[in-house]
C-alpha cells in the first residue's frame, strides 16, 4: 500500500513565497490531509509569525483531532540542535524533528547532518525520532 505524504508550512507563506500557507488554518488543513488519507505530514517553518512552540502545539492538536493516524514531521520549527538550545517540547509535539539544515550532495553535508544527532539519542523514543535531514534533497544535485 503506498504512503501518502503531505507538505505544508506553518507560516503565512511557503519558503519560496509563491503561495499562502497554513498559519491560521491548521485545523482546516489537517482535516483536508486526513480526507486525502495522508500518512505523513511535514510542516516547514517559513513565514511564521507565531512562536514555534505555539505553532507545533496547534499542529499536533489539529492532526490528532482528525482521528487519522499521521506521522507529524516538524521541519525546523524551533527544534534544531544548536548547542544548548534543544527545546524539550519538540519531542512532545511531533513524531520527528529536523536536527540540521537541508542536506546536499557533498560528503561534508552528509557528515555534518549525521553529526547533528550525535548525543541526541536520549530525545528519541518509540514514535519519536531525530531527523538529520531529508536525503531526497541530494537526488536533484547528483549527476
Instruction: Tell me, briefly, the overall form.
Output: globular
Query: How many separate helices?
Result: 4
**H/E topology pattern:** EHEHEHEHE
β-sheet strand percentage: 5-15%
Helix content: 25-40%
Strand order of the largest sheet: 1-2-3-4-5
Question: Which ranges are low-confidence, i.e. pLDDT below 50, for 5 or more consecutive residues?
Answer: 136-143
User: What distance separates the N and C termini?
Assistant: 31 Å
What is the strand tally? 5
Instruction: Tell me the Rg in angstroms.
Output: 15 Å
Main beta-sheet strand count, sense and barrel state: 5 strands, parallel
**Which structural class best describes the helix and strand composition?**
alpha/beta
Mean pLDDT: 83
Task: Provide an overview of this structure.
It is globular, with a radius of gyration of 15 Å. Strands 1-2-3-4-5 form a 5-stranded parallel β-sheet. Residues 136-143 have low confidence and may be disordered. Helices cover 27% and strands 14% of the residues. By secondary structure, the protein is α/β, with parallel strands linked by helices. The protein has 4 helices and 5 strands; from the N terminus they run βαβαβαβαβ. It has helices at 26-35, 52-65, 89-93, 107-115, and strands at residues 5-9, 40-44, 71-74, 96-98, 129-131. 34% of the residues are buried. α1 links the parallel β1 (5-9) and β2 (40-44).
Amino acid at each position: 500500500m503506498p504512503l501518502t505524504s503531505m507538505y505544508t508550512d506553518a507560516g503565512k507563506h511557503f519558503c519560496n513565497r509563491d503561495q499562502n500557507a497554513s498559519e491560521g488554518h491548521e485545523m482546516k488543513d489537517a482535516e483536508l490531509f486526513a480526507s486525502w488519507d495522508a500518512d505523513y505530514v511535514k510542516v516547514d517553518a517559513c513565514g511564521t509569525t507565531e512562536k514555534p512552540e505555539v505553532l507545533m502545539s496547534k499542529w499536533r492538536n489539529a492532526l490528532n483531532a482528525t482521528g487519522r493516524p499521521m506521522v507529524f514531521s516538524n521541519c525546523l520549527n524551533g527544534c534544531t540542535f544548536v548547542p544548548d538550545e534543544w527545546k524539550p517540547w519538540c519531542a512532545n509535539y511531533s513524531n520527528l524533528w529536523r536536527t540540521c539544515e537541508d542536506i546536499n550532495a557533498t560528503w561534508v553535508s552528509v557528515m555534518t547532518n549525521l553529526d547533528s544527532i550525535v548525543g541526541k539519542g536520549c530525545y528519541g523514543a518509540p514514535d519519536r525520532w531525530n531527523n538529520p535531514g531529508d536525503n531526497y534533497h541530494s537526488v536533484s544535485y547528483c549527476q
